[in-house]
Amino acid sequence: MATVYQRCKSDKRSVHYPCTISRCGHTWTVRYREPGGAERQKSFEKKPQAEAFVAKLEHDKYEGLYLDPKRGEITVAAYCAEWLERQVIGDSTYPNYESFIRIHLVPHLGGKTIAGVQRKDIEAFVSALGKKLAASTVCDRMKLVSHVFQTAVEEKRRSDDPTDGVKLPRRAANAVDGDEIPTLHEVDLIAKQISPQYRLTIYLQAGAGLRISETLAVTADCLRTDFLRVRRQVSTKAHRDDCTTRFVPLKHRAAGEYRDVPLPPFLADEIDAHLREWGTAMASGLEVLFPPRDRGKGTMPTANTYTYHFRKALKDVGVVKPDGSPKYTPHCLRHFFASTALAASIPIHEVSRWLGHKSIKTTVDIYGHLVPASWDRCRTVMQTALRPETVDS
Questions:
Q1: Measured by CB atoms within 10 angstroms of the end CB, which terminus of the chain is less buried, N or C?
Q2: How far apart are CA 87 and CA 181, in angstroms?
């Protein structure tokens, strides 16, 4: 049981001992033991505060809710560094997490203890982020912050998650804008203008819906008669000489998992033409279709190094915005694939699978508005089902 007392009246080591004044105003001390047996002390200005602490302490011990105050004394900066090293995350995800923590989270909250962060601190942090980042980015990054504090709660470093219930900025709809979808003419222009060794990349993205990191990771073992077996993606560090893992699992997939994508005849012809012209090269024991060429640096092209060639091609053919910047990104070619398939009434769940989305909800949110309306067909189906025509026998 905890003990509440004034040191000034019972502890000879107190500078106020012996104090004979009944209401002296000196602090009150609570001496107690943690569930593990360690003895602790905590001081309060008023006796009611000390007694309230004891009541909560005994209740928490009884309910199994007791938290060791010292476990929450680690700073947010130190805890985040420790937390990040324990996460099992993708090769491209780690630098995104690390840079957000270093550039945004630590400067704003890093000096506070993990247990000392309050809801108002999180609200101020969200407000500060909103002045620098897009609403969608703020919402995505706050998932990371919530994960950090939820882990702290699970580890009994604090009793609650201060991010819970905090209002986030309203994010724009995920639906793709029609202006982000290139026309067939523009796709062909880009393919014709880009560095010749990368012509095939344009059609793998526009004709098979591959991400650029997946496109650059296409190898001989991905090629089939009438489909592509997408097995891996290129690491963001693949161009570096010190990179030991140049190929990593597909996004949202574990190592060894793959997806199959239909291979239209024209794309098969493009692949054959590419192989005749450029052949393959070995990288990490695989026959890759897109190794560095000519003055290319590093051991493998990545999404970042490829973007230079893509942007240059757009500028060279005049596919630009009014300010002269490139009109599209490589990802827009995936939009072309998805929108073309959906416009032809291919089921959205199949398109979702070919795109490699984690959930069909993602596909519906981005492309659902592009699915052709089926009002007339639905009316006909329901009429036939509920009021079928009588057939004379």
A1: C
A2: 36
Q: Where in the chain is the domain with CATH 1.10.443.10?
A: 180-354
Among candidates 80, 79, 25, which has minimal Cα distance to 47? 25
Closest C-alpha to 103, from 68, 77, 139, 83: 77
| Confidence (pLDDT) at 293 | 60
Task: Give which of 209, 215, 219 is closest to 279, Cα–Cα.
Answer: 219
Q: How many residues does the chain have?
A: 393
Q: Are 289 and 272 in contact (CB under 8 A)?
A: no
pLDDT recorded at residue 191: 97
Cα 303 from Cα 238, distance rounded (Å): 10
- pLDDT at site 108: 96
Q: Can you identify the CATH homologous superfamily of domain 76-154? A: Tyrosine recombinase, N-terminal domain (1.10.150.130)
Q: Helix/strand/coil (H, E, C) string of the chain? A: CCEEECHHHHCCCCCCCCCCCCCCCCCEEEEEECCCCCEEEEEECCHHHHHHHHHHHHHHHHHCCCCCHHHHCCEHHHHHHHHHHHCCCCCCHHHHHHHHHHHHHHHHHCCCECCCCCHHHHHHHHHHHHCCCCHHHHHHHHHHHHHHHHHHHHCCCCCCCCCCCCCCCCCCCCCCCHHHCCCHHHHHHHHHHCCHHHHHHHHHHHHHCCCHHHHCCCEHHHECCCEEEECCEECCCCCCCCCCCCEECCCCCCCCCCEEEECCHHHHHHHHHHHHHHCCEEECCEEECCCCCCCCCCCCCCHHHHHHHHHHHHHHCCCECCCCCECCCCHHHHHHHHHHHHHCCCCHHHHHHHHCCCCHHHHHHHHHHHCCCCHHHHHHHHHHHHCCCCCCC
What fold characterizes domain 180-354?
hpI Integrase; Chain A (1.10.443)
| pLDDT of res. 209 | 96
Which residues does the chain have with pLDDT short of 70? 35-37, 61-69, 91-92, 238, 241-244, 293-299, 390-393
Kindly report, as residue ranges, where domains of CATH 1.10.150.130 are found in the chain. 76-154
Q: How far apart are CA 234 and CA 131, in angstroms?
A: 33
Please give the pLDDT value at position 392.
46
Closest by CA to 203, choosing from 264, 292, 113, is 264
